[in-house]
Task: inverse folding
């Protein structure tokens, strides 16, 4: 075998080992956990985690009942998610993390970073990152999700709700 062939084989083997190590590191990472419902960033985290876990009863409990188009039953909430599945990233590989929170009186704006993964190749990971803001309101002594461009049905903001 030529010297250049050995070097090329060594490089390819090194890349394969790095990919395997990276996959093991990602898969062995800790599972996200629910946090205490004592802050807007924790409520935003828990709402999004409940949606990812398809724990719709828990996710529904974080939704503000004062929305103009509030789904008055858990069944209606589930239907709204199915009807707007593209906005809830159903079936996609997504990682979500809370970046920052700004609280002004009884309103909080929580900035969320969303990383979506699609098939990539050797030179493209297929990862896309999106940053968006969720609005939460303090209602009584609980923070509730009041609006968001993603993981929220836009019709919940409209009088009459989802049709």
Result:
């Amino acid at each position: 075998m030529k010297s250049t062939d050995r070097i090329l084989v060594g490089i390819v083997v090194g890349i394969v080992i790095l990919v395997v190590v990276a996959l093991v590191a990602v898969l062995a990472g800790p599972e996200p956990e629910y946090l205490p419902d004592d802050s807007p960033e924790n409520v935003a985290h828990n709402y999004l985690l409940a949606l990812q876990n398809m724990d719709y009863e828990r996710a529904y409990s974080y939704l503000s009942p004062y929305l103009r188009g509030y789904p008055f039953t858990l069944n209606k909430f589930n239907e709204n998610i199915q009807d707007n599945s593209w906005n809830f990233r159903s079936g996609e590989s997504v990682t979500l993390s809370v970046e920052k929170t700004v609280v002004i009186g009884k309103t909080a704006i929580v900035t969320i970073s969303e990383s979506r993964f699609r098939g990539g190749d050797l030179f493209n990971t297929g990862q896309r990152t999106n940053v968006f803001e969720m609005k939460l309101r303090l209602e009584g002594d609980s923070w509730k999700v009041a609006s968001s461009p993603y993981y929220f049905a836009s019709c919940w903001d409209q009088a009459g709700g989802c049709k």
